[in-house]
Write a structure and sequence with these properties.
By secondary structure, the protein is mainly α. 48% of the residues lie in helices and 8% in strands.
């Protein structure tokens, strides 16, 4: 048995690294501001924080690739060569490698891989491995399993496929780029994970990718969206006015002389105005040190913000000597005028979210509480944009001040609203400019987000300055569930997982499963569907097109589920009603017969839902949901809506014009009964209120009522 040759004794290992002295930004095609430091290969930290065009969502720590924590010196060079190769697939030493990646990896991806690579190499060192040719299959499998079930600090966690896959790809990456390494490498015979890919190792390679992101739970989503819309539409205008006053005060304060107030006459004038106007003095901010004025905690002036009094007098601070000289006058004025928090003192009345009367939009707030409220409303604005547009968080973070494209009139009374952003996912560094067609609520939320940045925000500045993450969701939920939110009549938001990705998934499902759904209470689902389709039509290759593809996929699954449900009801003897019922029953009968023949020919075949779904797929493709019926658009020439509209060549029905009681392709089911029952009750109430002179109107309503009652009777009879 021969001992594997180590790279440090191999002739090729004596050669210098192909990246020695390399300017990494120049190799990767990154652009830096003039005079910015340029990281080179030999640095132990590669700092890309100043690279122009980095995604806004990428944290600063992820823009710095560090190799200092690798304990084995020769492996530090291996890690550098591996990272450099990921950044420069076109490098002459990399493009010759048969298994190297041919596309540039994003810095964020390289950062995550480097974290796992450092852990892998140090894990090997801790087990006495000094050379990579000592690594075995057992080492690879053990570490991958360990990281999949343990956090970096060693605490156990349920198995995480994503981590398992990432670790496996890093271990396999050292195989792919082995020929490139000049200080150490695996032995040539090593095939980690028995030659399986990272997807196979993690168990994620199971056919077409499935969207595993769960939607936001109904009981969480409804109060969440309601609260966000209320804050953006109702409370935000009041908050912006209060902030404008504060910003003006801050600007005046910044221009004050640095000297302290020492003039008794000037102080007396300020005290007199407070007493005359019955305007309370400002409370001292919490945790502010009062030693400057020599006051103890029990002093009657300990709670008064003396510095704010000095600001009113045009000075930056309050002189200690003046305090001793004028103490009695100050104490008397404080007794007469009182003290209160400095902001939102005279809050105007605002309608409560639950409709139970009006109340001031805010209680008096300290500056710290005002900052919290501002952050909560910012979060609300960002929530509305994501929840009603389907934007990814990366696209939200790429929005800038001025992102609101001027509204364009698409027709009489029709206005199209757009938000400009950039798509960075799977795009070159810097992303690609894109626009989203959105509903007015999302457009207005972007305006509120701009206003909350203040007058100092210039066009092109980031609209969103932080991630829409768990911390912000928790702060938002706590505020809504706390005294401030409950005072305004907001419904409490229950605990439950919540991410920007889940909001996108929720919107796709809500649009796909219209006309029901939680969004219908606050926002027209039809509008959301229309703007998504318009966004696709405007930019077929844009990000909104990908979102529309998600919606269409969900609609397809929805239709298959609905058809399967109706087929199972048919098998139980519950038949559909409506003019198109006979055609649907015949189709179900043919499927039922085919299943019976298949079962008779092969006793192993089971009448599974998946098998039935496959047989029903053709009918699911032509299903369109109406408010009070299902439309089976099998033959455009029979569609009553197209005949009424004069568009017989259309490829989709005009569901809004549907008269399902007469269309031969419409069916009614028990799920539609509440709609028809409500319609009948409303018409009966109108007929009862019509006078004798309105005979024509009464006859028209009676005809429509008879139709509603006939549909109800048919649904009840078939059920």
């Amino acid at each position: 048995m021969t001992t594997p040759t180590r790279p440090d004794s191999h002739p090729a290992a004596t050669a210098a690294s192909p990246f020695v002295g390399a300017d990494l930004c120049r190799l990767a095609g990154f652009t830096l501001p003039t005079g910015a430091p340029r990281p080179v290969f030999e640095n132990d930290i590669w700092d890309f924080t100043q690279v122009i065009g980095m995604p806004a969502y990428l944290a600063k720590c992820a823009r710095r690739l560090g190799f200092t924590h690798i304990t084995n010196p020769r492996w530090k060079n291996v890690a550098k060569e591996y990272a450099a190769a990921q950044m420069t697939p076109g490098h002459e030493a990399v493009r010759l490698l048969p298994h190297a990646n041919r596309s540039i990896k994003a810095i964020g991806t390289i950062y995550r891989e480097l974290l796992e690579l450092v852990r892998w190499l140090n894990w090997l060192t801790a087990r006495g491995i000094q050379h990579l040719d000592e690594v075995t299959e057992h080492h690879c499998t053990s570490f991958a399993q360990y990281r999949a079930t343990h956090r970096p600090n060693g605490t156990k966690t349920p198995h995480r496929e994503s981590v398992h896959k990432l670790v496996a790809s890093v271990i396999l990456g050292l195989v792919q780029y082995g020929e490139l390494f000049t200080t150490d490498r695996y032995r040539d015979e090593l095939r980690p994970f028995a030659g399986h890919t990272a997807d196979e190792v993690a168990g994620t390679d199971s056919g077409p990718a499935e969207n595993k992101t769960q939607p936001v739970a109904d009981e969480v989503f409804q109060p969440l969206l309601a609260a966000a819309l209320y804050l953006v539409q109702t409370l935000a205008p009041h908050l912006v006015r209060e902030l404008e006053t504060k910003w003006h005060q801050d600007a005046v304060r910044a221009s004050l002389q640095s000297s302290a107030l020492a003039d008794p006459v000037t102080l007396e004038e300020v005290l007199r105005r407070h007493v005359t106007d019955r305007r309370p003095f400002s409370l001292l901010p919490a945790r502010t040190k009062i030693r400057t004025w020599g006051l103890g905690n029990e002093d009657p002036l300990a709670r008064v913000n003396l510095r704010a009094i000095a600001h009113e007098a045009g000075k930056a601070n309050f002189g200690p000597q003046l305090l001793g000289q004028m103490r009695s006058a100050i104490e008397k004025a404080v007794d007469d005028a009182g003290v209160a928090e400095p902001f939102c003192r005279d809050a105007t009345l605002m309608e409560r979210a639950d409709g139970q009367g009006s109340m001031p939009w805010s209680l008096p707030l300290a500056e710290r509480d005002l900052r919290t409220l501002t952050q909560v409303v910012k979060t609300a604005a960002h929530l509305v944009i994501v929840a009603l547009s389907g934007m990814r968080q990366s696209e939200l973070r790429e929005m800038n001040v001025g992102c609101r494209v001027p509204p364009a009139e698409a027709g009489p009374g029709l206005v199209r609203y757009k938000l400009a952003s950039r798509v960075v996912k799977d795009k070159p560094l810097g992303g690609v400019a894109d626009e989203w067609v959105v509903v007015k609520e999302a457009y207005d939320a972007a305006e509120v987000a701009e206003q909350l940045l203040g007058a100092g925000a210039d066009t092109g500045d980031p609209l969103v300055t932080g991630p829409l993450d768990r911390t912000r969701f928790t702060t938002f939920r706590n505020w809504v569930n706390g005294p401030a939110g409950q005072r305004l009549g907001l419904a409490p938001i229950p605990d439950g997982p919540l991410t920007a990705r889940m909001l996108r998934r929720t919107l796709a499902l809500e649009i796909a499963y219209r006309p029901g759904g939680l969004l219908a209470a606050k926002v027209q689902l039809k509008h959301l569907s229309v703007v998504t389709t318009e966004g696709y039509a405007a930019r077929p290759g844009g990000a909104q097109a990908k979102f529309l593809a998600e919606v269409n996929a969900e609609e397809n699954e929805r239709n298959k589920d609905l058809v399967l449900t109706e087929f199972r009801r048919y098998q139980q003897g519950h038949l559909p009603a409506g003019p198109g019922a006979r055609d649907l029953i015949d189709f179900f009968a043919s499927v039922d017969g085919q299943l019976a023949r298949t079962g008779a020919e092969d006793s192993v075949v089971v009448d599974s839902d998946q098998q039935v779904r496959d047989l029903l797929a053709s009918r699911a493709e032509v299903l369109h949901l109406g408010v009070a019926n299902y439309c089976w658009f099998t033959d455009p020439s029979k569609a009553l809506c197209l005949k009424l509209a004069g568009t017989p060549e259309a490829t989709k029905p005009l569901v809004g014009m549907c008269d399902s009681s007469r269309c031969p392709q419409a069916t009614h089911h028990p799920c539609h009964r509440p709609v028809w029952a409500t319609s009948a009750q409303t018409k009966q109430a109108f007929i009862g209120s019509i006078t004798r002179r309105q005979k024509a109107e009464k006859a028209r309503l009676q005809t429509e009522l008879d139709r509603d009652l006939a549909v109800l009777a048919a649904i009840d009879a078939t059920a």
